[in-house]
Amino acid sequence: MNAVVTANGLNKRYKNALALDHVNFRIESGRIVGLIGPNGAGKTTALKAILGLTDFQGELNVLGFDPRTQRDRLMEQVCFIADVAVLPRWLKVREAVDFVANVHPRFNRAKCEAFLARTKLQPEQRVKQMSKGMIVQLHLALVMAIDARLLVLDEPTLGLDILYRKQFYQSLLEDYFDENKTIIVTTHQVEEIEHILTDLMFIRDGKIVLDTDMEAVGERFAEVMVSADQAATARSMKPLDERQVFGKSIFLFDGADRATLESIGEVRRPTVSDLFVATMKGTYA
Amino acid sequence: MKTFYWLVKREFWEHRGGFLWAPIVTGVVFLVLNVMAIITAEVVGARHGFNIGGNNVQMMIAQANQGDLAQIGTGLDIAMLSSMGLISMVMGIVVLFYCLGALYDDRRDRSILFWKSLPISNTSTVLSKVVSATVLAPVIAVVVGVIIGLVQLVIFALVLSMHHVNAWQLITLSHPFRAIGTLVSNIPLYALWAIPSVGWLMFCSAWTRSKPFLWAVAVPAVLGLLVSWFGIMGLFNLPTVWFWKNIVQRALLSVFPGSNIAYSDSALEDLGDSHDPLSVLSPMHSYTLLASPNLWLGVLAGAVLIAGAIWYRRVRDDS
Lengths: 285, 319
Hints:
The complex is a heterodimer of chains A (about 280) and B (about 325).
Chain A: E1 3-14, E2 17-28, E3 32-36, H1 43-50, E4 57-62, H2 71-74, E5 78-81, H3 93-103, H4 109-117, H5 132-144, E6 150-154, H6 162-176, E7 182-186, H7 190-193, E8 199-204, E9 207-213, H8 214-220, E10 221-226, H9 231-236, E11 241-245, E12 248-254, H10 258-264, E13 266-268, H11 272-279
Parallel strand pairs in A: 3-7, 3-8, 5-6, 6-7
Antiparallel strand pairs in A: 1-2, 1-4, 8-9, 10-12, 10-13, 11-12
Helix pairs in contact in A: 4-5, 5-6
Chain B: H1 2-14, H2 16-47, H3 54-63, H4 66-102, H5 105-108, H6 112-115, H7 122-162, H8 167-173, H9 176-207, H10 212-233, H11 240-252, H12 267-274, H13 277-281, H14 283-286, H15 293-315
Helix pairs in contact in B: 1-2, 1-7, 2-4, 2-7, 4-7, 4-8, 4-9, 7-8, 7-9, 7-15, 9-10, 9-15, 10-11
C-alpha cells in the first residue's frame, strides 16, 4: 500500500501553546481515518498542516507534495470541508457549480447536478437563504463531484440534526468512497462514525496517543463487566478505566490476556467513545 | 487564463451591487434630478410667461459665429459628461471599500476556507481582485456613464425640440464620439494611477487581523501628522506638503478617477484657457502623465504592496 500522508516530527507552536509536539504518523490509501481528540488537542492544526493552510516545522508529505510549497498542485488532489457554513453567504447554487466546474480540472458537473437533484436546493438559491443542513448538502455535492484522492473533513456535521448527519456519512460511503480514496475526519460525535472508520487516531496535547486500525482495537482493548466480588482481581490487572453500572463494575483493559478476562466476567469490545473517555482522562483537570 | 476569467467573474457576482448597480442607480438618480429641474423650469417659465429657447434660440444659433457654436457644443459636452463625474465619484468610493474588504471579508466569515480548498494560487486570487478594482469597475462605470450621458443628450434634444429648436442641429454641435473615446482612453491610465492605492488598501486588507479601514487610514495619516509636526518644530527639514500629496493622498485617494488631474501642473490652467472639459481628459493631454515619475514610482510601490498582499494571503492563518 502507498502512503497518502506521511508526517515525521511535525511540530507547530502558537504563541503560548504547543499545538503539535513532534508528531509522526502515516496514513495509507483507501482508509477512513478518524482523528479524534478533545478541544484544543491539535486536530485542526494537524489538518491545516496537511492542507498547507499553516506553517510548521518537520517533514510532511501529502500525495508526494510538500503542502507548504506545492499547495496549488496539491489541492487538485485534495478536497476539504472545514466545517459547516464556510460557503460565502452571497453565493448562489448555480454560481457555486459554475465556478468550481471552471476552476477545478477534476470536477464532474453531471455528478454534482445529480447529487443536487436529490436535495431541495434550487439553482438561484443563495447560501444565506439556506439552513445549515442545506449548506452542507451543497458543499458535499460539490466535493463529491471532485475526483480527489484525499478528502479532509473537519467537524463536517457540527450543529446539524441527526437526519442530515446520517445522510452525510451515508452519501460519503455509498456514492464517494472507494479504495483509491482516503478520508480523514475529525468529529466529536464519535458514535456516529465509529462503524465507518477503518483507522483510529487519538490526539492529546499535540501528541498522537493512539494510532491503530479498527480490527486491532477489538484485539487489543477489551471491556469486562464484573460483579463486586471479582472487582479486586480486575483492579489488580491494571485497567485503563473503571466505572460502575447497576452495582457492577466495568473495566477497560489494554492488551490484557483474553482467557483471564473471560474467567472474571463478561468480555465485550469497547466502543470508541468509551476508549476515548478512558484515554483522555484528566485532560481538562 | 480560464481560471482567471472565472475569478474575476466571481468578484463581479459578489460585488454586483457596487460594481454594477451603484453606477446605474447614481446615473438614474442624476437623470431624474435633471428631468425634475427641467420640469421646474418649464412650469416656472410658463407661469411667468417667458419662453426658454423658442425662436430666439433658433435665431441665435442662426446668427452665431463659429466661436459661439463651439461654446454651445462645449456646453452640451459638459452636460453629457457631468453624469460621468458623479458616477466616477461613486465608483471611487466603491473601489476604495472593495479593496479594503477584498482580502479581509472572506477571512472574517471564514469562507476563505472554501476558496482555499480549490486549486487556485494566492497570486491569481489577489491579481483577480486587483484587475476587478482597476479594470472591471472602471469599464462598467464608463459604459454606464456613456449610456446615461447619451440619454441625457436625448432628453435635452427632446425638450428643446418642444420649443421649436432644431435639436439635431444642436446635437451635431456636441462631440459624443469624442467624449466616449476620451472616457475609454482614460481607463488604462486610471488603472496605472490607482495601483498604489489599490496596493496599499489590499495590503491592509490581507495583513490586518481586524479593522482594515482604520489601519489603512491611520497609518498614512499618523505618518503625515508626524512629518508635519517635525516640520513645525523645525527639527528635520522634511517636505511636509510633498509627503501629504505624494504619499498620503496617493495611498488613499488615487482610486478616485480624475484624481490625477490635480497632479498635472498645466491641466487646470488649460481648463481655464479653453473651457473645454474634453481637452483636459483627452488622451493627448492626460497621457502626458506617462512621462511623470510620480506615476511610475506609484506603480512600483503598488506592485510591491500587492506582492506583500499575496504573501500575507498565504501566511495569515486566523480562520
